[in-house]
Amino acid sequence: MFKCEVDEHIYLAITEMRHAEALYNVIAENRDHIGQFLMFARTQTPEDTKSFVQTSLNKFSAGTDVPTCIWYDKQLIGSIGLHISEAHRSASIGYWISKEYEGRGIVTKCCEAMIDYAFRELKLNRVEIRAINENLRSRAIPERLGFKHEGTFRQDVKLYDQFADSIVYGLLAEEWRSGN
């Protein structure tokens, strides 16, 4: 199984069925926080979480996803995943974190680890991050990591009773190598 030591406090590990309860608990404790921009959080049940974990494991086995939990001092605090398009040698990264751990640079470090893995281990050419326009914290991560702002997908996400714009950021392997 995949495990990545990010620093002395943080590691990423494949989301396994044994993590489902802890993952659900973090989601439940952060419904309003996570649910601002990720609709699943507002209605997630323990059964939904188990189903998500099983689907994620199947995708990992198929080589199309690297779904991980973010662990801080051995406590599950969030999730980050790499969603792979083998045909295009590209991937997208999605993430969320418990409100309590926000603002510490944890997600930025986790993204760096995923980007390194995507470019160095998987030999991908491109990594993308999308964030809802109003999600300034999420948008700051690719901006901090040297991603290029590639455009805005207007009203491409239905968020509850309204549509939201997505900001698209991209990074090429050659840009990562030259800057890191």
Describe this structure as you would to a colleague.
The protein has 180 residues and is an alpha+beta fold. It has helices at residues 20-29, 31-35, 40-43, 46-62, 106-121, 136-144, 173-179, and strands at 3-5, 10-14, 65-72, 75-85, 90-97, 126-132, 148-159, 162-172. Strands 1-2-3-4-5-6-8-7 form an 8-stranded mixed beta sheet, sandwiched between helices. The longest helix is centred in the first third of the chain and has 17 residues, at 46-62. The two termini are 26 Å apart. The model has no long low-confidence stretch (mean pLDDT 95).
Essential attributes:
7 helices, alpha+beta, globular, 180 residues
Quote the beta fraction: 35-45%
Shape assignment: globular
Q: What is the overall pLDDT average?
A: 95
Q: Write the element-wise H/E pattern from the N-terminal end onward.
A: EEHHHHEEEHEHEEH
What's the helical proportion of residues? 25-40%
Low-confidence spans: pLDDT under 50, at least 5 residues? none
The gyration radius over C-alpha positions equals: 16 Å
Distance between the termini: 26 Å
Question: How is the biggest beta sheet arranged?
Answer: 8 strands, mixed
Helix/strand/pairing category: alpha+beta
- How many helices? 7
Question: How many strand segments?
Answer: 8
Record the strand order, biggest sheet: 1-2-3-4-5-6-8-7
Give a short overview:
With 180 residues, this protein is of the alpha+beta class. It contains 7 helices and 8 strands, in the order ββααααβββαβαββα.
